[in-house]
Structures are given as C-alpha cells and as structure tokens.
Amino acid sequence: MSTTRRTRVRGTGFRKMGKFRPVLRYRAKKFIKPMPIPEKVIPIKTLELPENFTIKINKNDFTIEHSNGSLTREYPSSSIEINNKDNIVEIKGKSHNKKVKALVGTFSAHILNMIKGIEEPFVYNLAIKSVHFPMTANYNNNKFELKNFLGGKFNRSTTVPSNVELKLNGSDIELKSSDIEAVGMTATRLEQLTRVKKRDRRVFQDGIFITHKAGKKLWKN
Description:
There is one protein chain. The protein is an alpha+beta fold. The protein folds into two domains: 44-119, Outer Surface Protein A, domain 3 (Alpha-Beta Complex); 122-217, Outer Surface Protein A, domain 3, CATH 3.90.930.12. The protein is 16% helix and 39% strand. A hairpin with an 8-residue loop joins β12 and β13 (156-159). The longest helix has 22 residues, at 98-119. The protein is elongated.
C-alpha cells in the first residue's frame, strides 16, 4: 500500500471536490480508494474543582476563589466557552479548528495551575554569582536594583509585580506567588538583568541564575 498524489482519478469525481484529497492505491488489486475523512469533533474538556473552591465566570474572564485567595484570568470568549455546573468546569471550543483545540487544552492547564497556586504558592530560587567583581543587590518598594555588575557604572533595575513576594538574603533570592506566570516572568527578568553580550560566558560567569524552578533543581550551587 502506498500513497499517490493524483488529482485525476477515473470514476471518483475528484475534480468536483475543488481540493486535493490523498488517496490510497492498492497495487495488488489495481484500484484506487479514497482515504476516509476524520470526523470533525468540537473539543471539550471537563475539570472537577476541589472542595472549598468556587469559580465565577464573566463575559471575558473568570475568577477562582478560595479561603487562601483568588486569581482572575481573561479568556477569548470568541473562541472558547467556559461553563460551571455543580463544581464541574466545562471548557468547550466554538469550532473544530486546531487552534481552538489548542486553546481548550491551554486554559484547562491554566485552571489547574491556578488551583495549585492558590493551595500552595509557586517558589522560584535564584543565586547571585560574582566571579570578577562583587555585586550589591537592593530591594525596596517593589524595585530590585543591582550595582557594580562587571564593574559597570550604571545600576541595573527591574520592577517586581505586587502579587510576587521577593526575599533577598545575601546572594540568595526567593520569589513566591500564587500566579505561576507572574513569578516565572519575574525570575526571567532578574536573570536577564545580567545578560552578557560579546563576552565568553565560560569565563564571565557573573550574574543572576535561576537555581530552583517550582521545586525543580536546575543549576548546582
């Protein structure tokens, strides 16, 4: 059995279909049979909320609430539909497009991460490493500032979101938040503060590095 790219097949009326459809050719029996078209199914995913969790769904966003806190996220109401019945959340696509199917899976993962983050905040750990020049880090009023990176005269700084808790203990940085995207983006911004250009990274190993990412160890101290 082999695949052939033919659009002119006798007795099948492929010309009237407008688009090329792959066909299977059976060499032994010497006839051509069109491939079956898969059924178009609307993507649907269901999630059961744990105890003491509630969800409020609005036109363009939804909120998950618990005694520990709450998180809100927007969703594309033109592509997917979110419903709640007896603490069972249904995420349903409005078409069988593969992008809509991906959105259904994505927001299913978002809801699970929101529930997990409210139960226990996500923690990221970073380390400040200075090989050539000693660096000084300060954190005040949601602003992180790094001085004397590679002997530079200009201070490097970034703003930490209000929903992310930052603890600075010498050369160790701890980030904690219920929102996995906020804490992950903050960790990336801190790491990018010391991005080295036009230098050999094997030699100039000064900088800020993520060591633990939500419980997973990424880098040896």
